Amino acid sequence: MSDIFDEVDESIRQDKMESLWKRYRPFIYGAAALLVGAVALNEFVLRPQAEQARTDRAMAFETAVNLLEDDKYVEAEAAFRELAEGNGRIAPLAAQYLAQTQYEGGGDAAGATRTLSTVAAVEGSPFERLSILKTAYFSVDNQSLADLEATLGSLVDESSPLGALARELVAAKAFETGETARARQMFNRLRFDAAATEGVKRRAEIALEAIPPAPAGEEDETPDLTDAGAAPTDTADIEETGQ
Known about the structure:
Elements: H1 2-69, H2 73-84, H3 91-106, H4 109-120, H5 128-139, H6 145-152, H7 161-176, H8 180-190, H9 198-210
């Protein structure tokens, strides 16, 4: 008897499955068709379109750079602006070049600063710190020393090539505003700054030769050469002991 009941139960289940299949078959077919269509759309339409768009942006960027190199600033500015205002990954880089074009082509420091501020506002962007430094360079002539330091913010204390450039800019501004002692101190430190490039170090040495010595009683602060990883080379300055 149990076998009969099992067969009845199985028959009922099959009837229910067949009923459900007939009822929801159009929806299942429709979902499958949508899935296949979505995959096909992505593979054969959207992906090629995206790749073509990236290629077009790269070519447009190259064209804009060539225009800038040929001193065609109006055309270059229009080309870089279109890329900078787009949503492609090349937009932040295009904004950097747009600011350069604005500054070089028409001396528009304010416009260049506004362009860079949009990039600097994107926290975590690889161009964020560079944009801050460029903004400081573009506006240095119209800022006080305090304003310049505020613009640079924590970049001045950063142990990196960009940080060294920021410190160099502050040192130059300090000299320009009459803070000779501070300027000499900062340039002296830059000579032994591990983060500074060789170019920054050479310019620091040139600046120290040009800047008058500090007044009596305001000696230059000499960096700790031991901490800087360097050793004094002038044996005349090394005090001999035991004699």
